[in-house]
Amino acid sequence: MSPIQLMVMLAALHAADTVRSIDACALLTNADLESILGETIKDRKPGTQVAGALTTSQCFFASASARSVSLTLTRTNPAGRSGVTAREYWRKQFHAGEHDGEDDRRARPVPGLGDEAFWTGTRFAGALYVLRGDVFLRISVGGIGDEKARIDASKRLAREVLRRVKNPELGNDLTNSKSQLPNS
Question: pTM (2 decimals)?
Answer without folding.
Answer: 0.77
